[in-house]
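note to self — DONT lose this again. spent like an hour looking for the file last time. sequence + predicted structure for the chain T wanted, 101 res
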Amino acid sequence: MVARIYRPAKTAMQSGKAKTQRWVLDYEPEVAKSVEPLMGYTSSSDMKQQVRLYFETQEEAVAYARRHGIAHRVEKAHERKVRGSAYADNFRFNRVAPWTH
């Protein structure tokens, strides 16, 4: 039973950063998922995959895992890099590629 502690990435569907500030403790799957032959549903008998705990800081998540004797792995948080650009840059005189339709 290995837990993964990480900070989730921003969703690709929205530009906001909601739900990316908290740290998450998830369990790694112990049993592979199987396909139910009649209906084709994907299922697993591993109940720990349904558990997801949220913490305000990484230290709180690690302390919780150590306190409860959970083997854990901490994944480094990736910071977002934002490149500044302006709409006027599309019509710049010294543009690398010519602007055409």
